[in-house]
Amino acid sequence: MADGTERGDDTAHGDSSEYVNIWMRPERPARGPRPAYSRAQITEAAVRIADAEGLEAASMRRIAAEIGTGAMSLYRYVPGRDDLLELMIDHVLGELDLPDRPSGDWRADLTLLAERTRAMRLRHPWMSGMRRARSSFGPNQLRMLEFGMGALDVGVPIDDIMVLMGLVTGYVDNAVQDELAWESERRRSGLSKEHWMGRSAAYVHQLINSGRHPMLTRVVKDARQPHMDREAGFRYGLDRVLDCVQAALPSVPELPEVPDVPEPGGGA
């Protein structure tokens, strides 16, 4: 905008009459000259900036400078900041290499989805701060939704599928945030997780010796997870979450055992 601010959501004041979902807007007008840029170019530039400098740096002015145009001209392609964020989110979700449809093995499918989502979020740390309650259902988000929820479509109500899918995605989000937080602390302090644990050992042993913290004592003496590498720790937690999902799904009946039948003419 002229004063340096950016356009937000048309529905900020509850007026939905003017709002048009970004995915319903044609990328180029039916008439007029060919556009100089595309939404994809603008989105890719925004993602590059956010990856390198953080989400706040990906302003229309900064993106315009990146692709060599004026900030106001970008609003012909992307009407506002919320639309830009939706395009950015859907763009990085497009990196998820998922099959066209679930395999029939829900546990394997959700493991694949969780591991690839984690990898994508670690490549784009700004995504960890994007907890948007409202979705515009971009094409890549829909592809992810259909694959993940479709994997759980095994005879349970759709509300249960939504809750169970939320358990998995919530675990992935929280695990990635923890990984990024440890990495941020490492850069800030210069201490690895192992060095931090060593430096804290004297105080932790003081707490243990007090006898007032039995659960902390068990964590320090018995827990394996804090000593796992990042991939093993993630997979351990994911397996526990999937065990909880399994408990909510219908059990698969076991096939009855077929008794051995002696072959005709066989001896006693």
Folded structure, characterized:
This protein has 268 residues and is mainly α. It folds into 2 domains: 72 residues, Homeodomain-like (Arc Repressor Mutant, subunit A, Orthogonal Bundle); 134 residues, Tetracycline Repressor, domain 2. Helices cover 55% and strands 0% of the residues. The chain is built from 11 helices and no strands. Helix 4 crosses helix 6 and helix 5 crosses helix 11. It is flat and about 80 Å long. About 2% of the residues have low confidence.
Summarize the structure.
By secondary structure, the protein is an all-alpha fold.
Q: What's the main sheet like?
A: none
The number of domains is 2
Distance between the termini: 94 Å
| Approximate helicity band | 55-70%
Rg for CA atoms: 26 Å
Relative strand content: under 5%
Series of H and E elements: HHHHHHHHHHH
Poorly predicted spans: 10-14
| CATH superfamily membership of the largest domain | Tetracycline Repressor, domain 2
Provide the descriptors you would attach to this structure in a database record.
Tetracycline Repressor, domain 2; 268 residues; Arc Repressor Mutant, subunit A; mainly alpha; flat; 0% strand; transcription regulation
Task: Spell out the blueprint of helices and strands.
Elements: H1 39-53, H2 60-67, H3 71-74, H4 81-93, H5 106-123, H6 139-151, H7 158-189, H8 193-199, H9 201-210, H10 214-222, H11 230-248
Helix pairs in contact: 1-2, 1-4, 4-6, 5-6, 5-7, 5-11, 7-11
